[in-house]
Amino acid sequence: MSDTIASASAPQVDSTDHAADSQRAAIARVTLQLRQTIAAAEGVERQIALARQTACDELRTRLDALQEQRRQMLELEVQRREADAAATVAPAHRQVAPSVDAPATTSLVPVQPLISPLFGAWTEIEVLEGEGGALSQMRVIMRVVNGDLEAELLQMH
Q1: CA count, 13 A, side-chain hemisphere, 135
Q2: Three-state DSSP state, 113
Q3: Around Cβ 123, how many Cβ atoms within 10 Å?
Q4: Model's pTM, two decimal places?
Q5: Tens of pLDDT along 49-85?
Q6: What whole-number distance in Å separates Cα of residue 34 and Cα of residue 27?
């Protein structure tokens, strides 16, 4: 009788249950391996992103240095060209300076009678400088309006 009680209390192991447990264990192992692989891949992706950011920062630093060097070179080139231009223009300035600084003598030469401005019409005159040279003659029109003299420059040669 004790055999019957012992056999009644012991679980009966069926071969199909053992096979199902074996399959579940295999699925659990594969699932754990898959999770470990995913975690490892995420770690590698983080390392790649960090390496990419570090490389970008390094390149940005190198580029900034190159840009600063190029900017300085361009500034020096601009200064050199400005000095060359000033040296080229300086003789012309020295040539013109005496005529610009000298007191100019001007004379008004009426082209038409001066009686016209009294009635609001325009009168053309030429202003001549005593010395010849560039921009030494001007053509001006003038008129009197309400007692005020108005003038406009027509031509300078």
Answers
A1: 5
A2: coil
A3: 19
A4: 0.36
A5: 999 999 999 999 999 999 999 999 999 999 999 888 8
A6: 10
